[in-house]
Specification:
Blueprint lengths: L1 H20 L2 H4 L15 H15 L14 H27 L2 H4 L4 H15 L1 H18 L6 H7 L1 H17 L5 H13 L2 E2 L4 E2 L4 E3 L5 E2 L4 E2 L4 E3 L3 E3 L20 E2 L4 E2 L4 E3 L3 E2 L4 E2 L4 E2 L8 E2 L16
């Protein structure tokens, strides 16, 4: 009898929870219902897309390790063919998920646009590779702990995160919805480095160690910049519209000019400018611009010695 009563109580609990979880007011922000036949983007497929892109951007390091120069065109061509189909499908899914125009346009409009955007993106890959080659060189030049560029490509979270970012940034510039953010968040989960695809980052960028770095959407970073773990390039405040919601897409993150070094734990907030050649010390909190050649450091710590417990 006791077991029967517990089973009945369990059914009542499930029924109560079911009713509460299905109440419309409880899930109106957290649920998604398709009004079309196109599924949502797939994180797993986008991971596979990034794996394919790494094998193209860093041939011989990822994908086919035993890749000869003679086989290069066949390998890259076949990979790009697969990539084109996978990525155009994911872009289409992102468009259906985010854009009302797909529901309002003629049949086939979004499919054609997804293919067009994919083609435009693939055309940027030589430039993406060039930017990444400068990032690898910056890491190799700037870190005495690394013996060769291959070690940087294989091992450094900085390069992994920057590969995802530079790919996502090109998609972002083309106006592709949702997919760029998923790609950078994949790298965020793998490396602890959070770069918004809208940020603008110049050549020879190096994130030493990298964990905990945050680079906001409207950040602008020049050439030959180095930042260390735990650095935040964030927003200081969020202007609100007439309804009390944050106004989006306005410049609100720092501008970091060429040849700047920012050490671990520094926090730089707002649309401020860090002048060329400046050095920002560790754990500095900065919410104002500094001119070129500045050196901003914390105050010196005070040390007090107590003898035999005196003064405690």
């Amino acid at each position: 009898m006791l077991i029967d009563e517990e089973a009945q109580n369990g059914q009542k609990v499930i029924a109560d929870v079911l009713e509460r979880l299905c109440a419309p007011e409880s899930y109106k922000v957290l649920s998604h219902r398709n009004n079309h036949d196109i599924p949502m983007p797939s994180v797993e497929v986008l991971r596979a897309v990034m794996d394919s892109l790494r094998s193209v951007l860093f041939p011989g390091y990822f994908g086919l390790a035993e890749l000869s120069l003679e086989a290069m065109p066949y390998h890259v061509g076949a990979t790009l063919d697969t990539l084109y189909r996978q990525l155009s499908e994911q872009i289409l899914r992102g468009m259906w998920f985010r854009e009302n125009t797909c529901r309002e346009a003629s049949e086939g409009y979004c499919t054609e646009r997804a293919h067009y955007l994919t083609s435009r993106f693939i055309q940027t890959l030589p430039d993406v590779r060039h930017m990444l080659s400068t990032d690898v060189q910056a890491a190799f030049n700037g870190d005495p702990a690394v013996d060769n560029p291959g070690e940087v490509i294989f091992c450094y979270p900085s390069i992994r995160a920057l590969t995802n970012y530079r790919v996502a940034h090109e998609l972002h510039k083309l106006g592709v919805p949702m997919i760029p953010r998923i790609i950078t968040e994949i790298a965020h989960s793998e490396t602890g480095i959070d770069i918004h695809p809208g940020a603008q980052i110049g050549e020879y960028f190096f994130m030493d160690h990298g964990t905990g770095i945050v680079i906001g959407e409207t950040s602008v970073i020049g050439k030959n910049v180095r930042i260390y773990q735990g650095v935040t390039l964030g927003a200081r405040s969020f202007p609100l519209d007439e309804n009390g919601f944050p106004i989006k897409k306005i410049p609100r993150h720092p501008i970091v000019e060429d040849d700047v070094t920012i050490y671990s734990g520094a926090t730089i907030l707002g649309r401020v400018t860090i002048g060329r050649g400046s050095e920002i010390g560790g754990n500095v909190w900065l919410a104002h611009s500094v001119p070129p050649g500045s050196r901003v450091l914390q105050g010196k710590p005070e040390q007090t010695d107590f003898a035999g417990g005196e003064g405690i």
